[in-house]
Records
---
Amino acid sequence: MEQILEILEGLHPEIDFETCDTLIDDKIIDSFDIVTLISDLSEEFDVTIPVEDIIPENFNSAKAIKALIERLLEDE
Amino acid sequence: MKTMQNNVLEYLENVVGKLANKIAYASETSEASFSEVYKNSRSIGSFLYRQGHYKEPIVVFMGRHPEAIISFYGTIYAGCYYVPIDDEMPRHRIELIFQSLNPKAVICDNETIQSVESFDYGGKVYLYDDLVKSSIDEQLLGKIRDKQIDTDPIYIVFTSGSTGIPKGVVACHRSVIDYIENLSDVLKINENTVFGNQTPLYVDACLKELYPTLKYGATTYIIPKSLFMFPLKLVEFLNEKKINTICWVVSALTMISAFGTFEKAIPEYLTTIAFGSEVFPIKQFNMWRKNLPDARFINLYGPTECTGMSCYYEVNRDFELDEVIPIGRPFKNTDIILLDDDDKQVIQGQAGEICIRGSSLTLGYYGDFKRTNEAFVQNPLNNSYPELIYRTGDLGKYNDQGELIFVSRKDNQIKHMGHRIELGEIEVVANMYPDIKSASCIFDDIRKKIVLYYVGDMTKAELASFLKKKLPRYMVPNMIEQLDSMPLTANGKINRVLLKEKYYGR
């Protein structure tokens, strides 16, 4: 979780990512961030995020991102 | 005999007789047929003129939907010129635009009407829904048309300025007609063209869809911005709407290829893929070409000051990973001159400043003769009669095959997410933060990140939220770093070379 929060805070230092669960709905993370976010996450956790997982539900909160990464790590 | 076209509205008037009920523009929330575009824009034009607006800027402050486009044409019907702005723009930028234009009227939709009230603006505010109810005065519109000439302005779009003040580029009927005729030939637009628009309506990039749609009776779908985060959904949208022609920024295309989208879905109907404003990484480009082997890929290049795009290159060979896709050759009726530091033409193979000649030159920067005269200058190769060229500040050269190649910028301007940005403008805004001591920007070309270094007591988060309020989204630094002191050169200027070393040495 720490690493995920760090990556997110790198993108938007002024947002409280621990509580926010509307990252996509409120356009906090937008098309400018998504490529950086996905490449940073892939690098940090050494996973490939398949395109079918790049959907709004998986990126709306730090918790959702964590669940996604955990699932991908388990599947490996 | 048909007289020469001298007004962009003739495109609309020609098509409405043939394809009245066909959809011209559609977005997530609404759509408009050519007859609706025709009727509503004429209502708007009649209304604006009756209110006393003539030969003046009209701000169109609306969302990204067909009604905004109709308001553009309505403004031209009134003999005025449109200035598109958008809720996505930061307050500070909108304030600067209001200050530089001092407009007498703003057209809003139901969403933006609230925001406009929060600005220090004393002019008239019109609601689109009201405007289109007003009666059309044919006689009046005819009178306005009789007085219009092809060098009259039709729009102003704003582009980044290194002093912190954006520059309003004014384009006229002639430059837009010249551009649209020649661009459409290259893209091979026809009645069956279905565009998928990606760019905002407040930049000149959207001309590529707006006017060819009228000229040929094509259809433009305005793609919701949120889809550009979710590649599979985006491709599904392209297929659902049977989109066959796109003119996108490179980052929107690589977003699809880089995430392995092609393994799951292919945009089946795409036949023409135009891109530009940025270097297309060859690895990504090859994925596109491999998966859409029958599509035409066209690289476009050009500055806002020359209406849209000035050069094109249709890919007709394979590219190695270390090659760049050429910008090719100028459109018909446009000429490129490469000038060296002494304003002489360079010899074959040498790099020189790309200078543009032709009817596609815009009129210059609104209310700013000084900056206009610096960039739009007498052709130094001609000392016999007045002839303007536009100095792009880009360096280019011809390769052995005679194709034009973009080399680099002469200054601190960068291209990021398809937008042209002066790093100096970001620095000016950062230095507006109370008690900040120093701020300087660099651009990471490889990872495509704007990095801001600053010295001051504020936190990164404080500075970030400040910048978000003042700068357009695409200009907000992707990374902010605090320093104890700013590295300086011997003569006291900020040492960007050392900053870059610091950045890459992290």
Note: Chain B has a mean pLDDT of 94.
---
Amino acid sequence: MKARFTLTKGSTQYRNYRISVWALLILIFLLIGFAFVDVGSISIGSNKYNLSLIRLNKAIAYGVAILGLQVVVGYTGQIALGQSFFFGMGAYIAAWLVADHSWPFLLTLLVVVPSCFLAGMIFGLPALRIKGLYLALLTFGLASIFPTIVKLDSLNVYTGGANGKLTGYKFKAPSWIPLDEIAQMLQNIPLLGPFFGDGPLSNREESRLWKYMLFAIIATICFWLISNLIKSRPGRAMRAIRDNETSAAVSGINLALTKTISFGVASALGGIGGAIYVAEVGIASPDDFSSLVAIYLIVGLVVGGVGTLEGAIIGGLVYALIPDWASSTQSVAFVPERWLQGPTGSLILGILLILLTLFMPGGISTALKKTKKKYIQIQNPSLK
Amino acid sequence: MDLFLQRLFDGLTNGSAYALIAVALVLIFKATTLINFAQGEQAMLGAFIVLQLWNWGLPMWIAVITGMLISGLLAGGLERAIIRRFDPADHLPLVIITLGLFLVLNAVAAIIWRYDPLAFPQLFPHGSALTIGNARLSWYSIFAFGSCILVLLLLHVLLNKTKIGLSFRAVSSNLESSRLCGIKVGPTLQFGWALAAAAGTFGASIYAANPVLQIEPSIMLRALIFSITAAALGGLDSLWGALLGGLTIGFIQSVLVQYIPFIPNEMTLAATVAVLLIVLTFRPSGFLGTKAVERV
Amino acid sequence: MTNVLLKAENLTATYGQVEILHGISFEVYGNEIAVILGANGAGKTTTIRALSGMIDTTGTITFNKEDISQLEPDSIVRKGVAHVPQGRGTFPELTVEDNLRVGAFIRSDKEVESDIQNCYDTYPVLFERRSQSAGSLSGGEQQMLAVSRALMSRPELLLLDEPSLGLAPQIVEALFERFLIMNKDHGTTMLIVEQNAQIALGMADRGYVLEAGEIAVEGQASSLINDEAIIRAYLGG
């Protein structure tokens, strides 16, 4: 099939295309932020669907954690299911530093990242001996013990036990960012104005918007770093291990080092995701980091697309939005009410996981790429 | 001393239930070299089916057997519709599929039966069979352990003395040669899945029939980790190993953790995962597993 | 020698993107021993796997005048074709006796037990080890077991994939002598794929030389074995 447009890498055209795509993405991102900061819901029939920034902020948190899974599962090919452990670890460390030591949120990342990285490397050590299914078993076990660990009496002082740990942290947008003015401006656009709410932003809305941008910046940095890592030597080593461990070892790749680093990076990202999560919800509670969460993160990984960076973003959105929308759906024609009231979200995610693995193994991001290829073709200059 | 005995008895009770789920995991592993993460949920759903049949008026043991048949049929259908499409050597998609089944089955049970605990039929007589000092060995414990042995004996006969058992062992030993000997591999694996689901349903029914427990959709969530560890401890491809592993985990849980002062009570799960880690790192073939299974 | 038992016509097979067999045709007559010779990678194993339905092929395979090209391996065994795969293909976790029983899987007649006894009479060592696991046998013993296992299905045609591979010369000789006896005494038709041209041609009736997925030479074994040019060109002898 012939593409509608053909672009060559390195040409001016290609650069303009890249710049405009990025500009468009940032614009859409900001518009969504301002549009959904106050109301954030869409009504379809008698059902109201939440789109508020709270959901999107959670999506960013999940997205970063899923990015970690991309590194260890997608690129290194290790069946590690325990991401919720590090997600929880990051969340609890951040909550503890903020609540008990009054650290500002951003600073906690300086502790979260190295400690999760180290913990990940340590848990990666058995993976040097344990492979395939056995690793899946062990990491699943790891995921399931996290809640019992933070509920331990001896850790109560740090973790708050079964009640969870409140952070009590308020995000305040720096005054040099004219959030209010932008909001006013958008509200004055004819026709589309009402979509962006009414009147100046409340403190709460400003803080929410600021968090949204801040988290997005953190996430963007993570994605940028990982996309560079993947293209670099260690990234190639990871993919070599995924494709064939023996031939990777024979061609001089240090299996032990590459695997442990991959586990470390993945866990650090899990920790960052957890820190973002706790910054959004304001409390770290044990059951938010159960083995079910570990499975949901795998759902995000698979639905977005294993081994693709964009897949992590899609996966985060799927995880944050689908269970929520499912529980907001109170009536659908021909579906008995009972089937809408239980854990419908879990059911839908499970079905999605199975259907995508069966029929669309590349996930949504691969399907999108295929669609894009029909319209825009990117060539390598050397191919001419 | 009484306390110690009592804990031994408790370990026997829980260990028998874990062993039965572990047996189901082992059957699937032998058939498809796959760890079925949904095994616990399949068993839970099977036990709910038993409960439903009993509520509809079937005698309880008829309900158990019918429930085992139904869950076996369902599992056979799952194997045919989903599992068979995948290359057994490629683990990731299969692990993902079983995680998907885990979510779906758990949600379906919760939607149909809600989260409220329900009373399960009392399959075994009440009261204690044996009292030593203050330690009481209940009839339930004896029957739970006894039925566990019975199931294993039946499976042993089925696998070693029948033609379908022979084909099952052949397929799990060498898939290609099995086809060359005229064995229909697909239906044989399907039989393995059905057998595993039936054994799992039996296990969950025994577990739920514990007088101190009621049945609810999350009943097998914790038990799954214990059973997985039990299966790994036994060697993953050994049925009798699953029994040994199950009992060991039961005893670790009720005896060891209680008597080591620096391990808090809530750490049984963590202690189990630690056992899993140690076994997989240092002796992947477990107590009775085949050495060749080491590198999967 | 006009009764064609097996006939392959225009057989092609691809592995991934690569075509391994480029439309080969050959036949095996009833009661004969035919061999397919060729170097590594010539497509010998692919050919024999195509015959028993283990890989997808195009072309026609007829056995006893019946088209079996589209059948699954388990149905082809039931038609009377047994296959001893490369690397023995025994069931390592099963006992020797169970291996033989699996071999008789498609049968339900009363003579299975006496056939097992016959195997033991032929190879007393299998009787000694009947309750050991097949994985514990030596290479030669495993090959005996593999052949016995294949015979347990009472095949009309026995396909053997490199039976000499990895075995000591004396054991290979004994094995091939046994093939000859089976052929003469019981009339078992055999198609043997081999790299070891000398010993294979020494006992066979006819031979084919496979080279890069095509049949380069065919003829009576006695004439092939004496053709210096062929031996040198294709068989590295």
Note: Chain A touches chain B through 48 residues (CB under 8 Å).
